[in-house]
Design goal:
With 383 residues, the chain is mainly α. The chain has a domain at 39-68 and 285-383. Helix content is 72%, strand content 0%. The chain has helices spanning 6-12, 19-37, 45-50, 55-68, 71-86, 92-123, 135-143, 156-171, 176-192, 202-217, 219-224, 228-248, 254-283, 286-292, 298-320, 328-353, 355-361, 379-382. The radius of gyration is 21 Å and the shape is globular.
Length: 383
């Protein structure tokens, strides 16, 4: 028999954090992780190869694998999860018009800005960066037509995500078994290493479909209830295999390449689960609420952090030294925070000059009177 105060104790438990808050935090954490993937080292290809196996190379590899590799899968799943709810409330045409304004247009604008600033700085001798190329180079750097651009490489994600959005009205109407088939085909495409510019990263479609399935079957909520050790365990199990394949760096030729792609997919999935569980844990704490106030700048950070790497980071690197120098690890670990500060200052400056331009560049997250990003509001209002 329960003691008389048992119901009171149950009532006193803090409410479970809403998934919408965890989504906002997950997006912020993922985009900060992407900054690590593109972090400034000051080294070229041969110099980076010479650093392989060093303490700083191991530090960089570990941070990128944990925080960086989870970013694209989790962002894709979050997008699929939100789309599954959004299309249930509005028609396909308003939905697609909205995604053209909030995904495709910002991608083109930011790529154009990056080309002008970075190529201009390189032409004037102010930065070590790509110079203006031929018409195909311009098309790829502006639209990510056949490959990711050389300057704003991260916006290739927006290109593939927009194509997933075009297919979303059909995908959300498919039965779960057909969605599983689509996801399996995308996974096979990735592991096969077959290149076809319909999608630059087939894994984006795989995890986008996974997000739709997660919304349909309540998987986000179930993953949020996992004990922390169960969220960590898959990552701990797959990382040794990933390390072994990285060290082996050869093996049975084609088999090794396909095995590496398959294990990379597992690593990204395991890291995504870990980051999602971390976002849930943060959402239950005051620090999560404070971080969520900055999530409205996360898309701006995603789009402009390569400007920081091309134009600002080398100046800081003059003080810290390149990878291999004693001060570089501290600079490396701080780069997401520094790039985020750069993005916030740039966003506030653009917002002060032209709220309309800020709205366009931020995909609708800035330029309007809102205290937090749409992800922090109730999902029924936001998407």
């Amino acid at each position: 028999m329960l003691p008389p105060d048992a119901p009171a104790r149950r009532m006193a438990r803090p409410p479970f954090p809403p998934v919408s808050q965890a989504i906002g935090l997950a997006r912020l954490l993922c985009i900060l992780g992407i900054v690590y993937v593109h972090a400034w080292t000051g080294l070229g290809g041969d110099q980076m190869a010479a650093q392989m196996g060093s303490a700083q190379d191991i530090l960089r590899w570990t941070v990128v694998e944990l925080f960086g590799r989870s970013a694209v899968p989790l962002l894709s799943m979050v997008s699929g999860w939100l789309v599954a709810g959004s299309l249930a409330r509005r028609g396909a045409k308003p939905f697609l018009d909205s995604k053209a304004r909030t995904i495709l247009l910002p991608m083109i604008l930011w790529n154009a800005i990056a080309m002008v600033l970075v190529v201009g700085a390189a032409t004037l001798g102010w930065a070590r960066a790509p110079l203006l190329g031929d018409a195909r180079w311009i098309a790829d750097n502006l639209l990510n037509l056949t490959r990711a651009g050389d300057i704003n490489v991260q916006t290739a994600f927006l290109r593939d995500l927009f194509l997933c959005m075009l297919a979303a009205p059909l995908l959300v109407r498919l039965r779960s078994r057909w969605l599983l088939l689509v996801g399996a085909l995308a996974a096979l495409w990735w592991v096969s290493l077959f290149k076809f510019p319909l999608l630059l990263r087939p894994t984006i479609l795989l995890f986008f479909v996974g997000g739709i399935l997660a919304r349909r079957h309540g998987l986000a909520e179930r993953a949020a209830l996992l004990p922390p050790w169960q969220a960590v365990l898959p990552f701990l199990l797959v990382v040794p295999v990933k390390i072994w394949l990285s060290i082996e760096n050869g093996g049975l030729a084609d088999f090794h390449l396909h095995a590496t792609a398959a294990v990379d997919l597992l690593t990204r999935s395991a890291a995504s689960l870990l980051v999602w569980r971390g976002a849930i844990a943060l959402a239950a704490r005051p620090v999560g609420v404070r971080l969520l106030e900055f999530e409205r700048y996360a898309f701006f950070l995603f789009c402009c952090h390569l400007l920081f790497m091309w134009l600002v980071a080398p100046a800081i690197g003059e003080l810290t030294g390149t990878m291999g120098s004693p001060l570089w690890p501290a600079f490396f670990l701080l780069q997401p925070a520094l790039a985020f500060g750069f993005a916030i200052l740039l966003a506030k400056a653009v917002e002060a000059v032209s709220p309309k331009l800020a709205e366009l560049l931020s995909g609708g997250r800035l330029g309007r009177d809102q205290a937090t990003s749409p992800a922090a509001r109730p999902l029924a209002q936001a998407h």
